[in-house]
Amino acid sequence: MTAIFDNIADALARLEQDLASGDWQARHGHLMEMDNLDVGYRLVIAQPISKIE
Question: Which of 2, 23, 38, 53 could potentially form a cystine with 18 if both were Cys, beta carbons 3.0 to 4.6 Å apart?
Fold first, then answer.
């Protein structure tokens, strides 16, 4: 499980470097200009059907 957190720490460190250097902005800055973005997430809420007696 520690390896998972090490990967997260490494990824966050790379993100911090990219943000500080402007690399993130150069690669992904166009996303900041978008009004919306569909990344495929969906939320489905369901309730069990109650029996009618």
Answer: 23
